[in-house]
């Protein structure tokens, strides 16, 4: 029996970045090292089967989407960096606590508009070009913003932690588009809808930078979460799953569930089913077996792995790089700031290494990846 693949946050200190090779401490050096890493043939250290796959698998995190205007967790302006008291909601808390769900959906309601308007940035588009060149086989992303499948629909994406574009009922498995759910929330919460319209009009949500929002009385967090200190979250209402409402499902004990609405048409706490959840893997929740398998196979079917915009602070992501390391795959990291366990990734690979055997750069993905693509195009043209 396989062990559950759980999303667990890492709260320990992160080491300073280890630059590999040494000349990758400049933009020019980083471009050169990343280019050589991506274009290098399979290393002889891999098994014969693995050497047949001369492709790179990418593992991306929140840092990739910062240039799209979204908040990250541990960057220089990340939530964990600037808001030491921030604590994301956990799976069991959401499942079993009606008040916690009210608070979650109220904050999500406020943050959804800007998240929905945001678009892929130059890093996502550069990844698309790398896929077109046959250099990247698969993208495994921890992000839930759907930018990867939007930017490169022809390059396979494994969404490790799910996605915010839809909801799923925890009782019947029914899926519902998030934009439809937003409309339902507006109808059930007219005062909150008026408040959202007001802060959108004033531009208070135009900046995803925590300091800017704090000046306006808001706290911003990743994944479209906007906190208004002192807000009456207990008044917020959310709808029931329409499928459960139409046909209450059978519970695990064999009894028929109860799905009721309150006087306002919202999910009633008298209900025993009909709870909708974002289609993301919450902290403390296990990743679905088929997603775990798809991510592992993506690593196994590649000859190297490149981490982009992630500190690997969740075990589900760090474990994939550990798997690559155990398979003797070259490891690359493009991330501003430290990365969990990076001191164990390289060993002596810095000796005589031009980037082909491993690379570690501390640069912005949206700035460096387009230059890597351009460098490859120039090399192909002149070579």
Note the topology:
Blueprint: E1 5-6, H1 27-39, E2 56-60, H2 79-82, H3 91-96, H4 98-117, H5 122-132, E3 136-141, H6 147-151, E4 157-159, E5 162-169, E6 175-177, H7 178-188, H8 190-202, H9 210-215, E7 219-221, E8 225-227, H10 242-246, E9 276-280, E10 286-287, H11 289-300, E11 304-308, H12 315-326, E12 331-334, H13 343-346, E13 358-361, H14 365-382
Can you give a write-up of this model?
This protein has 383 residues and is α/β, with parallel strands linked by helices. It has 14 helices and 13 strands. The chain has helices at 27-39, 79-82, 91-96, 98-117, 122-132, 147-151, 178-188, 190-202, 210-215, 242-246, 289-300, 315-326, 343-346, 365-382, and strands at residues 5-6, 56-60, 136-141, 157-159, 162-169, 175-177, 219-221, 225-227, 276-280, 286-287, 304-308, 331-334, 358-361. Helix 13 links the parallel strand 12 and strand 13 (358-361). The chain starts with a strand and ends with a helix. The mean pLDDT is 88.
Characterize this entry briefly.
The chain contains 14 helices and 13 strands. With 383 residues, it is of the alpha/beta class.
The largest sheet has its strands arranged as 4-3-2-11-12-13
* Separation of the first and last Cα atoms: 51 Å
Strand content: 5-15%
Indicate the percent of residues in helices.
25-40%
Secondary-structure class: alpha/beta
Order of helices and strands: EHEHHHHEHEEEHHHEEHEEHEHEHEH
Unreliable spans are: none
Count, helices: 14
> Would you count the extended β strands for me?
13
Largest sheet: 6 strands, parallel
Mean pLDDT: 88
Radius of gyration, Cα only, in angstroms?
22 Å
């Amino acid at each position: 029996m396989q062990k559950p693949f759980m999303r667990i946050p890492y709260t320990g200190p992160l080491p300073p970045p280890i630059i590999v090779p040494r000349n990758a401490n400049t933009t020019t050096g980083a471009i050169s090292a990343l280019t050589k890493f991506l274009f290098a043939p399979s290393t002889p250290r891999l098994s014969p089967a693995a050497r047949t796959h001369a492709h790179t698998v990418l593992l991306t995190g929140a840092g990739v989407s910062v240039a799209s205007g979204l908040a990250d967790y541990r960057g220089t302006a990340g939530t964990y960096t600037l808001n030491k008291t921030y604590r994301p909601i956990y799976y069991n808390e959401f499942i079993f606590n009606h008040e916690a769900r009210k608070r979650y959906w109220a904050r999500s309601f406020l943050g959804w508009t800007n998240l929905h308007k945001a678009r892929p940035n130059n890093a996502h588009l550069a990844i698309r070009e790398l896929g077109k060149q046959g250099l990247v086989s698969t993208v495994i992303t921890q992000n839930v913003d759907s930018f990867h499948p939007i930017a490169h629909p022809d390059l396979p994406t494994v969404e490790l932690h799910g996605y915010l574009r839809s909801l799923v009922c925890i009782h019947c498995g029914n899926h519902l588009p998030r934009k439809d759910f937003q409309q339902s929330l507006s109808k059930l919460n007219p005062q909150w809808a008026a408040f959202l319209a007001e802060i959108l009009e004033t531009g208070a949500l135009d900046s995803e930078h925590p300091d800017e929002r704090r000046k306006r009385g808001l706290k911003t967090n990743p994944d479209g979460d906007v906190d208004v200190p002192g807000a009456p979250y207990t008044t917020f209402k959310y709808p029931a799953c329409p499928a459960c409402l139409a046909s209450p499902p059978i519970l695990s004990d064999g009894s028929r569930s109860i799905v009721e609405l309150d006087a306002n048409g919202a999910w009633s706490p008298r209900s025993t089913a009909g709870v909708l959840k974002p289609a993301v893997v919450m902290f403390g929740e296990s990743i679905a077996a088929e997603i775990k398998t798809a991510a592992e196979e993506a690593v196994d079917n590649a000859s190297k792995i490149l981490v982009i915009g992630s500190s690997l602070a969740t075990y589900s992501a760090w474990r994939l790089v550990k798997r690559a390391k155990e398979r003797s795959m070259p490891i690359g990291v493009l991330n501003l700031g430290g990365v969990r366990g990076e001191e164990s990734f390289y060993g002596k690979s810095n000796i005589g290494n031009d980037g082909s055997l491993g690379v570690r750069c501390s640069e912005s993905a949206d700035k460096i990846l387009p230059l890597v693509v351009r460098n490859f195009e120039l090399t192909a043209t002149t070579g």
